[in-house]
Amino acid sequence: MNESRYWIAERRGTLIAIAVFLAMFVIYIANHPVGLTANVAQTAANKGVLLAFVVVAQALVVITGGIDLSVGMVLVLTNCIASWIVVGTPMQTGLGVLGVLGSGILCGALNGAIVIYGRLQPIITTIATGAIFFGLALILRPYPGGSVNEDLADAMTGQIFGVVPTSLILLAGALLVLWVPFRGSPLGRGAFAAGSSEVAAYMSGVPIHRCKFAAYVLAGLFGSLGGLFLTFYTYTGEAAYASGDGYTLWSIAAVVLGGVSLYGGRGSAVGAVFGAFTARTIGDMLFVFDVDALWQPLLQGVFLVLAISIGAIALLRVRNRLDWFE
Question: 42-286+293-325: which CATH topology?
Answer without folding.
Answer: ABC transporter involved in vitamin B12 uptake, BtuC (1.10.3470)
